[in-house]
Amino acid sequence: MPRPVNGDRPPDQEVREAMTDMLAAMDEWGPEKVVCVSDQRTGMRGVLVIDNTARGMGKGGTRMSATLTVEEVARLARTMTWKWAAVDLFHGGAKAGILGDPSAPDKEDVLRAFARALANEVPSEYVFGLDMGLTESDAAIFVDELRDRGAAVGLPRALGGVPYDQLGVTGFGVAEAADAAAQTVGLALKDSRVAIQGFGAVGQAAAERLVELGATIVATSTAAGAVHDAGGIDIARLAALRTEFGDDCVREYGGVQPADAALRVDCDILVPAAREDVIDDAIAAATTARLVVEGANLPTNPSSRAVLHKRGLALVPDFIANCGGIIAAAHSMDARYSAIPVDPDTIFTMISAKVRANVPTVLGESAARDITPHEAATGLAHARVRTAMELRGQRPADVTEVRL
Ligand SMILES: NC(=O)c1ccc[n+]([C@@H]2O[C@H](COP(=O)([O-])OP(=O)(O)OC[C@H]3O[C@@H](n4cnc5c(N)ncnc54)[C@H](O)[C@@H]3O)[C@@H](O)[C@H]2O)c1
């Protein structure tokens, strides 16, 4: 039985319209495959999007959100295609998502239902990973449900995985990107004032590394609110509060403000590290930052990027700044069936080297050709994927504009 659908239209019409939209969204790069799944008993609804596998098996995290859409997952899968190519590692783009509240008490049942529903695709065509709303213990549930150690990456260390959110690999890379970009534009990171939207896995690790590098974190936020202190937030204290109270750490810290305040404070470097589409034209026009480093996926859009570029602000694109997670994921993919765990130092060393090489290349190309950093970085990734498609005989038409 199909589940009840909203609105006055008959259910089959709504399904038909949704299918048409998905087909219309397919372009010369992908997606190659979109698998929507549901389970009546648990109410689970989710989707897997495999975007482009010309350079290797599709790989990208799995997210859980109460507002998830197929389009959102498809956009994120596309970003993964460019991200793997930009960092020059041999996987393709993919992403999966579950529509639901990650703090609901029946989360485990929903995760198990999602894993079972994708048993045909996992792990031969897709391997679960971590993204917003999922943690290392959720990766362990996927592995358990499919009785396959190779079904997920991002497992806790105690199960032989590389716990990259616990290690903070993505946030570490975001901070390294901020340092490399600051050097490129002639800004001293030491004593720079940084605002970070999102104090989750990425935001916290970025904050900790930025503090190590000498920066001052003047604002940060969770969905529960923002904290702002021009003299510098005590990141160690906020991190301890996050361990105990989760998103409510900002309330416990004191002086909580509305959640979007972190995007509007006076700062030198702005790091959106919460979710997509948060920097619109108005914020791009008003920010006092000289540098924006995208910790989250897709926090800007083409219009706000143009505003930032016109104002002369440097922007480090998501797939350049937050590639720490995928570098760790690449190591974890290799180690899934191995008895020997990956050494975290190998991962941190590769992240630092890749990010510090890519950032000046992309910002230099952007300045030299008067194009946005996204256009510069995408051009590089685009050329690599196109070459792979041509070598495999897939021969895409000449594409002049690349969608992100
Ligand atoms: N975890 C990774 O390795 C990784 C890698 C690459 C990209 N990303 C991207 O980084 C972003 C954050 O991921 P994460 O793993 O840190 O997620 P997370 O769930 O650990 O943390 C997200 C943080 O953002 C906050 N937040 C959510 N909505 C907000 C709002 N409206 N205003 C202010 N704060 C808000 C949450 O409260 C939380 O503090 C996502 O866009 C994700 O796709 C994550």
Provide structural commentary:
This protein has 404 residues and is an alpha/beta fold. The chain folds into 2 domains: 140 residues, Rossmann fold (3-Layer(aba) Sandwich); 179 residues, Rossmann fold, CATH 3.40.50. It is 44% helix and 14% strand. It contains 15 helices and 11 strands. Strands 8-7-6-9-10-11 form a 6-stranded mixed β-sheet, with helices on both faces. A hairpin with a 2-residue loop joins strand 7 and strand 8. Helix 6 runs antiparallel to helix 13. The protein is globular and about 50 Å long. It binds nicotinamide-adenine-dinucleotide (NAD). Nicotinamide-adenine-dinucleotide binds next to helix 5, helix 7 and strand 7. InterPro entries: Aminoacid_DH-like_N_sf, Glu/Leu/Phe/Val/Trp_DH, Glu/Leu/Phe/Val/Trp_DH_C, Glu/Leu/Phe/Val/Trp_DH_dimer, Glu/Leu/Phe/Val_DH_AS, Glu_DH, NAD(P)-bd_dom_sf. Keywords: NAD, Nucleotide-binding, Oxidoreductase. This is Glutamate dehydrogenase.
Question: Topology of this protein?
Answer:
Elements: H1 11-24, E1 33-39, E2 44-52, E3 58-59, E4 62-65, H2 70-87, E5 92-99, H3 107-117, H4 136-146, H5 164-167, H6 169-185, E6 193-197, H7 201-212, E7 216-222, E8 225-228, H8 235-245, H9 249-253, E9 269-272, H10 281-286, E10 291-293, H11 302-310, E11 314-316, H12 318-321, H13 324-335, H14 344-369, H15 373-391
Parallel strand pairs: 3-5, 4-5, 6-7, 6-9, 9-10, 10-11
Antiparallel strand pairs: 1-2, 2-5, 7-8
Helix pairs in contact: 2-15, 3-4, 6-7, 6-13, 6-14, 13-14, 14-15
The structure holds nicotinamide-adenine-dinucleotide.
Nicotinamide-adenine-dinucleotide (NAD) binds next to helix 5, helix 7 and strand 7.
